[in-house]
Amino acid sequence: MSDLISSHQAPSANAVNSRHWLAQPFTEKATQRFLLVLLGAVALVSVLHLAFPEGHPLHVSTYTVTLLGKYLCYALLAVAVDLIWGYLGILSLGHGAFFALGGYAMGMYLMRQIGDRGVYGNPDLPDFMVFLNWDSLPWYWHGFDMAWFAFAMVVLAPGILALVFGFLAFRSRVTGVYLSIITQALTFALMLAFFRNEMGFGGNNGLTDFKDLLGFDLRSDATRLGLFIGSGLALAVGYILCRAIVSSKLGRVSVACRDAEARTRFLGYRVERVQLFVFVISAMLAGVAGAFYVPQVGIINPGEFSPLFSIEVVVWVALGGRATLYGAVIGALLVNYAKTVFTGIMPDAWLFALGALFVLVTVFLPQGIAGLMQQRFRRRPEPTAEENAA
Amino acid sequence: MNLIKELAQRDQVFSFMMPSVSPVDVRHGPILYLEDVSVSFDGFKAINNLNLTIDDGELRCIIGPNGAGKTTMMDIITGKTRPDEGSVWFGSRHNLLQMNEPEIASLGIGRKFQKPTVFEALTIFENLELAMASDKRVLPTLTARMNGEKRDRIEEVLTIIGLETQRYQRAGVLSHGQKQWLEIGMLLMQQPRLLLVDEPVAGMTEQEMERTAELLTRLAGHKSSHGRQSVVVVEHDMGFVRSIARTVTVLHQGSVLAEGSMDKVSSDPKVVEVYLGEGH
Ligand SMILES: Nc1ncnc2c1ncn2[C@@H]1O[C@H](COP(=O)(O)OP(=O)(O)OP(=O)(O)O)[C@@H](O)[C@H]1O
Ligand SMILES: [Mg+2]
Questions:
Q1: Which CATH superfamily is domain B30-277 in?
Q2: Which residue intervals define the domain ABC transporter in the entry (chain B) (predicted)?
């Protein structure tokens, strides 16, 4: 599948950075434009939500704000997938697992915040543990009552899983279809594990009934707006980080690994370490996306580990266009908007529509929407004065 | 333009040709030493008791009919293929059979592939940038910054390989011959002690071939404070081999059939038979 979607990278005269790697993205026109649109849209939605009263035609409802916040989380997840698929050629069909782990870390914090306000009123144990007749908190739940610890786990849990998994896979040079299959197996195995009540993550029902986050009531409009803005900022920061990586020398080495792995080794680069590093960063970003997602949808359950979800994410990226990062954002927003509309009308047909969409994109739009946009606005690389003189 | 002046002074060592610091020990013998190396693929012996010694600073040509095992030999030296038996030493200190590809590359063995492999999605400038001798671990690569000195070195090599006007084009658009040159340029950026060059002139014009011959002969034996560069060239084009060869090794069915000067080798009846039998 990855061969069908040829990727592309526009050559540019100033691609080779002389600045600090983290400063590089801010000098890129395309990144500036992306950030402007993203932050502008977040600001606009916020203003429309606050400035107009309910019932006014320009009012954006809390429901819509939260829905958009959810889309932004998906967009960050898509960016994380594009980082490794687009630039490194690693097609992960299990990134939902990292997203869900980040979500569970957040969910555990939110559960502990409930305190004695649960149905059973037990100050030490979440409801589902009381229901299971457990008399003490399992060891791995300790610490999640502290925000700093839980937030650290949001990136550490997916990061460590990616580190161990990636270490084993890349060291034995598992790539291509085989890697895709074992990432599917990974997320499937986690889904089965999290379904079990004995695992201590709420089993089938997952974690829910959250009350507040850092003291802010999750049902209040202000908190919901705050989470939406937070999701937008997380996407912006994640995007900048990914841009910084792909426009650094390491980004060019990634593309080299993607296109000619053996050649890259003969230049002296440790391909498996490059893959591991970028894979772990990508998993951490997916975890952050999951953490912003959970308080907005109000629940995290093993369904997020579903192999199908991870495949959907790949479809977003393919539709938006690989190896552009902004294409992943466009793809995630469009497909999820379409999903919302579609499932409202014909819920059963959505999967067929998604499948058809994927086939059409692969055949007619191999470079996705971003490829289409680049074709329209393509600037031919003009020889510079310096080049002409040489 | 400094470079043009530099190129005019043939007796001098060019900065881009100076090998990077390499711990290879050649005080007591050859730079590369293959002893009784054998490898078979599914029972087929591609390399059969191969013995080969390359002296420090030598330019060696390796010829042989298709399937003689020339590329496989390079795969073994660079760590891509593990032999079933035998030993491979780089200088007298480094056992190459205990190292992987990046380690061997960082030790100072550079390779040009038979099928030119450049990074097609990257620009020519970026291809050279990635090849440049530098700290190739992950974090130093992430934080690496382009500076005037590095840029100058890339520009130098760009001039040598004649691609300076195409520096910001993607390598994918280059012709076959130009890709060969770009790969040679990448070799130069690596500043290796030992260059393994597999069929460098395939797809080149007569004129390009001459320039390649000139470059390779100049590279071999270049002295610097760190040692001398040695070059191993595999080539089918007899005219090309004759124009650069000092010592020629003929491979046949995975082992050495003959070795010596071009004249000696080409009058060897065994060699003549192998080549006539092949229809050359
Ligand atoms: N990975 C492999 N698996 C199976 N057989 C192989 C493999 N690599 C090489 N061979 C076989 O080993 C033999 C030697 O191949 P090699 O590529 O080294 O020849 P060569 O001398 O480079 O030939 P040419 O002049 O065509 O490049 C060939 O018969 C080839 O088919
Ligand atoms: Mg060959």
A1: P-loop containing nucleotide triphosphate hydrolases (3.40.50.300)
A2: 32-278
